[in-house]
């Protein structure tokens, strides 16, 4: 199986980019992640970079695509951020979201904390989607607002979970490994992307794109057409799964 990846990360209307991303692939599979940092004094930028660096270091040690691997990545990053906070008073409030995907030649696993999302596409349609750890998502779960009303909600940026928080970290992990089919695609993105691009538009742009990079180019055009003022950093990784799945 061939895994084609493309990445996009821009500062948007902000002065600094506190998003981070990374991926590595080998003959057995791959690992991809997006992190969206929060916190003053450049703390968010530090936190998101720690997330990427430590998770990919873990992948180099053990590239098994398992739920235990995903869980280990979140705990390793959480410990690293808390240790950094203890060393530097100015980073006391730093936190980051993280969404992480790992796969081998047959199946995928993923997990997330915060409101960076993973979308999984099959036959051009969204088959799986992560659910945000945020106040608006809680309102959706309670039946107070619709999922579409998360975008632009006054509390959209209020997260209920983030890496670097005090106390127990509770990432949401996929319940069981997910079988990959030829032609599947994945999109990992910060809220700077999904705020401006609707899910049907993600599907439409995928259907007319001939590469992962072209797909991201189409998504970025939508962001730039709609975003104004000091709009957020935006970061995404697109992955296309092509060829014959080994069994």
Explain how this protein is built:
- It contains 6 helices and 12 strands.
- By secondary structure, it is of the alpha+beta class.
- Helix 1 (43-61) crosses helix 2.
- The protein has a single domain (2-242), classed as PPM-type phosphatase domain (Phosphatase 2c, domain 1, 4-Layer Sandwich), CATH 3.60.40.
Short account of what is shown:
The protein is an alpha+beta fold and about 250 residues long. About 30% of the residues lie in helices and about 30% in strands.
CATH homologous superfamily title: PPM-type phosphatase domain
How far apart the termini lie comes to: 11 Å
> Which fold name is given in CATH as the topology?
Phosphatase 2c, domain 1
CATH top-level class: Alpha Beta
How many β strands by DSSP?
Answer: 12
Helix amount, in percent? 25-40%
- Residue share in β-strands: 25-35%
**Gyration radius, in Å:** 17 Å
Tell me about the largest β-sheet.
Answer: 7 strands, antiparallel
Q: H/E element string?
A: EEEHHEEEEEHEEEHHHE
What is the structural class?
Answer: alpha+beta
- Average per-residue pLDDT, rounded, comes to 95
- Quickly give the CATH architecture: 4-Layer Sandwich
Essential attributes:
247 residues; alpha+beta; Phosphatase 2c, domain 1; 7-stranded antiparallel beta sheet; 5-stranded antiparallel beta sheet; 12 strands; globular
Layout of helices and strands:
Layout: E1 2-10, E2 19-25, E3 30-38, H1 43-61, H2 67-87, E4 95-96, E5 98-103, E6 107-113, E7 117-122, E8 125-129, H3 135-141, E9 172-173, E10 178-179, E11 185-189, H4 191-194, H5 199-207, H6 212-226, E12 234-242
Antiparallel strand pairs: 1-12, 2-3, 3-4, 3-5, 5-6, 6-9, 6-10, 7-8, 7-11, 11-12
């Amino acid at each position: 199986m061939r895994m084609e990846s493309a990445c996009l990360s821009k500062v948007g209307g902000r002065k600094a980019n506190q998003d981070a991303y990374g991926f590595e692939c080998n003959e057995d599979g791959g690992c991809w992640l997006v992190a969206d940092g929060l916190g003053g004094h450049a703390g968010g930028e530090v936190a998101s970079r720690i997330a990427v660096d430590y998770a990919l270091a873990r992948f180099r040690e053990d590239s098994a695509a398992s739920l235990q691997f995903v869980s280990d990545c979140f705990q390793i990053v959480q410990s690293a951020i808390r240790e950094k906070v203890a060393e530097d008073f100015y980073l006391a409030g730093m936190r980051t979201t993280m969404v992480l995907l790992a796969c081998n030649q047959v199946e995928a696993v993923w997990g997330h904390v915060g409101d960076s999302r993973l979308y999984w596409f099959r036959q051009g349609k969204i088959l799986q989607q992560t659910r945000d750890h945020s106040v608006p998502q809680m309102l959706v779960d309670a039946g107070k607002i619709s999922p579409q009303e998360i975008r632009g909600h006054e509390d959209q940026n209020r997260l209920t979970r983030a890496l670097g928080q005090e106390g127990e970290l509770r990432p949401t992990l996929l319940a069981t490994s997910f079988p990959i089919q030829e032609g599947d695609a994945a999109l990992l993105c910060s809220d700077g992307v999904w705020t401006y691009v609707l899910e049907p538009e993600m599907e439409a742009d995928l259907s007319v794109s001939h590469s992962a990079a072209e797909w991201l180019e189409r998504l970025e055009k939508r962001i730039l057409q709609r975003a104004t003022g000091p709009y957020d950093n935006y970061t995404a990784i697109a992955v296309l799964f092509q060829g014959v799945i080994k069994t």
